[in-house]
Design brief:
The protein has one domain (about 30-260). Helix content is about 35%, strand content about 30%. The protein is α+β, with helices and mostly antiparallel strands and about 270 residues long.
């Protein structure tokens, strides 16, 4: 299964913001520092043009708690967005809650972490989203102003100025009782992290349910890959304890049970 949606993409979005102002570009020193700080699997996956576009989005964060921009527009009304924020436990839960609150569904995602020049940890997430289909089965396009509103909600969640309890309850109500769900840990851990795999029928809010549960279990998500294929989703999370240590066998069983319970499985 491919890790990224294989669609022919349109050119990068215009470097003009919704107000008609030209977006700031980083100098070469910032770009090179950004690329050096990103993990090797990121540099293998994205070409040079994409890496420079992501560096520019990170540059435009400018010290805010979080920064969100459209990166690419794709067919089938899918939009790729780039999120840059402080890397902290529970970030993915808050991101997922913002998507649910704005009726957006995650098609695929890549989550990375890097150490900035000032020593702070920064999350760089690439997320492919589309609108949740209405009762008519039609999913409207994701517009630039929709992403701007999403960014405002996310910033409030990251700063702790808003609660995602309501979004979590909504996502739980959307669970499909008859869906076949599998939750398991891979035997081999990489870089001290354990790999948790979740396979289920795709539905809005699924990522929120899983990431929220991991946050409640005091598990840190250090990387994630989300893919969908013909109505099914495969989420792969690299997780550690909050102190960075790997999960023991007992903890893996505890987390696995919690995720299954949250997804409505016995």
């Amino acid at each position: 299964m491919n890790e990224l949606p294989r669609f022919p993409s349109e050119p990068p979005v215009s470097e003009v913001d919704p107000l008609g102002q030209h977006l700031e570009r980083p100098d070469d020193d910032f770009v090179f520092a950004f690329l050096r700080s990103m993990p090797m699997n990121y540099r293998r996956l994205f070409d040079e043009d994409a890496q420079h576009e992501h560096a520019a989005i990170a540059y435009r964060r400018r010290g805010r708690a979080s920064h969100l921009e459209i990166w690419r527009k794709l067919p089938e009304r899918i939009v790729a967005i780039a999120l840059v924020a402080d890397d902290r436990p529970g970030l993915l839960s808050r991101v997922s809650a913002a998507f649910v609150a704005h009726d957006l569904d995650v098609v695929a995602a890549q989550a990375y972490g890097r150490a900035r020049g000032d020593g702070e940890r920064e999350a760089v997430d690439l997320i492919w989203i589309r609108r949740v289909s209405g009762q008519s089965g039609h999913a409207p396009s994701v517009r630039t102003r929709d992403v701007a509103q999403l960014g405002e909600t996310l910033d409030a969640l990251v700063r702790g100025q808003a609660s995602f309890d309501g979004a979590a309850r909504f996502a739980g109500a959307l669970r499909s009782a008859n869906a076949s769900t599998r939750v398991r840990f891979e035997r081999d851990a990489q870089d001290g992290a354990s790999a948790l795999l979740v396979e289920a029928a795709d539905r809005p809010g699924l990522l929120l349910v899983v990431s929220r549960t991991l946050f409640e279990q005091r598990v840190q998500i250090v990387g994630s890959h989300v893919t969908t294929d013909q109505g099914n989703v495969l989420d792969r999370f690299q997780v550690t304890e909050l102190d960075g240590s790997p999960l023991s066998g007992a903890r893996q069983l505890e987390v696995q049970t919690a995720v299954l319970a949250a997804l409505g499985e016995e």
